[in-house]
Amino acid sequence: MWATSPPPLPLQLRRPPHPRFIARRRNKRLDRIAASQDPLTALTRVLWGGALPPAQLVVAVRHGWTTAWQLLMRQLAPSDPATGGFARAPARFPAVVGKPSSRLHLYVGLPCPWAHRALVVRALLGLEARLPVSVAVPGDDGAWSFTPGSPDLLYGKRKLREVYALRGGGFEGRASVPMLWDAERCEVVCNESIEIVKFLCDLAGDGAGDLDLWPPELRQDIDRWYSIIYPSVNNGVYRCGFAQSQEAYDAAASELFGALDRLEAHLAGCRYLCGDRLTLADVCLFTTLIRFDLVYNTLFRCTRRKLAEYPSLHAYTRDIYQMPKVAETCDMEAIMAGYFKTLFPLNPGGIQPHPPATCDRESLLRPHGREALSSAAGTPLEAAAVS
After folding, report:
1. Residue 316 catalytic?
2. CATH number of this structure's domain 216-371, picked from the four choices 3.40.50.720, 1.20.1050.10, 3.40.50.12230, 3.30.930.10
3. pLDDT tens column, 194-247
4. For residues 379 and 339, what is the distance between their CA atoms, to the nearest angstrom?
5. What is the rounded CA–CA span in Å between residue 134 and residue 177?
6. pTM to 2 decimals?
7. Residue 112 annotated among the catalytic residues of the structure
8. Which residue in the list 112, 190, 274, 330 is annotated as catalytic?
């Protein structure tokens, strides 16, 4: 006998959920989001659980961020449209014109290597009493600002731009540091760092004792070294960090480390760039080197080598750091915060890494052993060979 098939089960029609149930379920999800200490994380879990975001969302956000990054970078660091290479804007007040009054005031920012030059020269030449200084700090908008803890000692302004605007005819453009101000004439004297430090050397005159950072007999050599240091090293690190194309970065990094290799060779047999005397060329190189491992190596992608991997350059940096009053001009915490927390397009999260051990005060005060080096007879590596 064939077994008979069981009768089919009655068709079960699933009733749609009641609108009140749907509303309650939606409200529960929203309640979980509202109750979460991290609403964004809770929202993403509701939208796509533990999976990665949808591909379309990733593409859209990446495109939007890239567009916003390019917009910010064009304002922060103008570039050559053809190459993507960083093109630094020229100073608005590039030279000291005429003879300023005796009521001068210096405006600086501690993170800035260009302003640091002026602080080092001011300290080495003993100009603190003759040249008061106001220290601006980077604001949330990236503009140099003043705070109750770091005020504008001359006018009590909130922004450095407001000080610039006091000059006759007002001011448009970037309010940069360092800026030398004539308080009697209410005018900007200069905001080009190399011209400011040369002016400070002339201002010090005979009052600087045996130290002359801009001696007439070495000025040609100083300018020659500066013509190499500025584009390849001082500005070279910025050309790496602000490059907006791979080709622009590759070119800048190659030039930077080529110059550092040659400087290392020169300083292996010569205590300072121009022999056994510290000059403005050394000050200008120092303010970049003291920041190299601290910020440029990581944030600006100057990663081929650390400064600590150059024995002569690292000892040379320690040599200058240990000179009287120089260390007091080097605020490592302000330097790191000024880069990692202010340069939003390069570090959107604002996370500040721990400083390298080679950049702490104890390491920088280690013996450098460079006293044994005498002046270079005929200069072992001519500056022309470095270019």
Report:
1. no
2. 1.20.1050.10
3. 999 999 999 998 666 679 999 999 999 999 999 999 999 999 999 999 999 999
4. 36
5. 11
6. 0.84
7. yes
8. 112
